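Standup notes, structure subgroup. Blocker cleared on the glutamine input:
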Amino acid sequence: MKTSVVGYPRIGAQRELKFALESFFKGSLAVEELKRIAKDLRILHWRSQKDAGVDFIPSNDFSYCDGMLDTAVMLGAVPKRYKNLKLDELSEYFSMARGYQGERGDVKALAMKKWFNTNYHYMVPEIEDEMELKLSGAKLFDEFVEAKDAGIVAKPVLIGPFTFLKLARYTGKRTCFDFENQIADAYSDALGKLAKLGAKWVQIDEPFLVMDLTSEDVEFFVSLYSKLLKNKHGIKVLLQTYFGDIRDCWNDVMPLDFDGIGIDFVEGMKSLELLEKNGFDNNKILFAGVVNGKNIWKNNYQKTILLLNSIRKYASNVIIGTSCSLLHVPYTLESERKLPDSYKKHLAFAKEKLAELSELKKLAEDDDYAKNSIFIENYGIFSSARSGVNNAVRERVASLVQKDFIRLPDFHEREKIQREEFKLPFLPTTTIGSFPQTEDVRANRAAFKSGKITEEEYKNFNKKKIADCIKLQEKIGLDVLVHGEFERNDMVEYFGECLDGFIFTEKAWVQSYGTRCVKPPIIWGDISRTRPMTVEYSVYAQSLSEKPVKGMLTGPVTILNWSFPREDISLRDMAMQIALAIREEVLELEANGIRVIQVDEAALKEKLPLRKADWGKGYLDWAIPAFRLVHSGVKPQTQIHTHMCYSEFESIVKEIDDMDADVITFEASRSNLDIIDALCACGFKTQVGPGVYDIHSPRIPSVEEMKETLIKILKKIPKEKLWVNPDCGLKTRGERETTPSLENLVAAAKQIREELKN
Ligand code: GLN
Ligand code: ZN
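Run returned:
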């Protein structure tokens, strides 16, 4: 038996790539240095996999930014506006990733979207009618050769043409079908070139196959791959799927000339059933994804061996693999010095998962595996109960009733009351919450964590920042203010740290987009609130201004979705436990004079099943109520905001309206306001603030640009319903670009208010 890894994290165990890129962007790191650091990381990652005994080691899973963007570049799909800048290759690449503002022009970055049901974001390729997709760029080949020089014949990994075309945005009249021949040729050329360089296998990722597919989609896939596989140039092709099962196309995919098929047995609810029903071609190899690439719990060998045995009944050639790329889990437990072993023994990060692959291989080859010491040790971990039960919380969740989820009076009544209460101008301006987390903010936190300063000193510094931030917002002229979130390392981790039931890591970073990483807390036991979490800072901030200052919380679904969840109780129960805790905080903020409270649900959609058929009686039926539970106890005067970003909400706008918030702000500036039409179509009642300023790019949007966007929005959304705001929190931005951008934003709103008067 052999083992295979779908993909490996690339940002570096100590986030080396992040820091290198950020220095490079600032101009303090030379490009050669950046390239050297990137290369060192690649070699290191290949070596760890080799040392762990992995047989199929991926290459080309590295990226300076994102694999979809790399694929666009590989196919020469660079939109005109970037080409026209006439930059060198790397600068052109970063202009697509981050936007460009400089002597050669001013262009926005490509749109960014959540990658299936993960918190990783990909760059949305733009395909123009005039584009000709053909093999360009050398990354795929260079990295294969680099691995080879390091003594490793890697398995190059490509995002597949079907997924690429399905996720791309088409700016002209042509659609994915028009590019079938071109893209098939381009990939075929890539196979040929890889074969020449000595590659034996290539992995083509087609996660889009786990989505709901129409018969047209399936036909397109079959026709595209029939062309692509016509000449494989002697290379073996693995079709890799993940994040679900391929129930809509299993029987169409199997006859194609693939040499291996990668099936996800962790998230693929129907994978085993499909295999049992349809069997598996003996001439193909089944790459069985049985080691979870998304969660951090140790693999239960007993269950996995049973699963592998079931799989082997139907497939004679099986390779043990990860369920998806390990990009979605942190590097290694070795970096966790503070976490006691009693916790650690239940966990496995990327590097530990490599070890799991080889241990599973040993057990799978051992007829008497139950006597194997590897098995016995693993069995021991799972047979002892974990701590962390809180009966009071369990009872509260069990006794929730319908009325706990209903806020009274209804939305329209509240809207009237709140207009009187706040007397805000039309198009009120606000921000999403965080202000730049500058060097001094991080240094203050680090000093406190390492015991160099007292808690009082730590807090006083934060309060000083808050005071400055309030002053700045008043000067800029924003209408609804925020305290700036200087006390938060991260919007989920912060709450995790304040709540009972979570455990924390020091270095367990996971890439979210570009150079941004998150450190998801781990839900260990039942969750409860033991102390106020935000009240002191919020009350302080409000005391400094006559204007309303928003209390700022993270919602239950987002805390759940951006944590590593338990697997021993349901997601619903975890969400309700968290919702009860956040509800207590909401009520305490209100009792302390906070009149506007924002409960962020940035990740609302993340665990929504990828297929519509799996939605009902599931996710949304508890996710929306969990949010409602948080705010159903507040007074009508208290205005509840929520915020969402970077997913396609079009399909669930009705449910979002049902969250029954008073105002929702969301990301829109990178996605051409597609969502506005969906809002109109469903008669959305909640007031909305579609972001008019892309905060993930360092460029400064002009007054004109934001006015133009607002005018477009106002054609569809009545002015009484519209808020004006950036599309997300400002924590990753610098002060240099933040202040002028917000000044422009306020100016744009003011000018439109004037124009509307006439
Ligand atoms: N309030 C958070 C912030 O501004 C929201 C961040 C987010 O949506 N990801 O940072
Ligand atoms: Zn956001």
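Discussed briefly. The chain has two domains: 2-383, 416-757.
Next: hand off to the docking folks.
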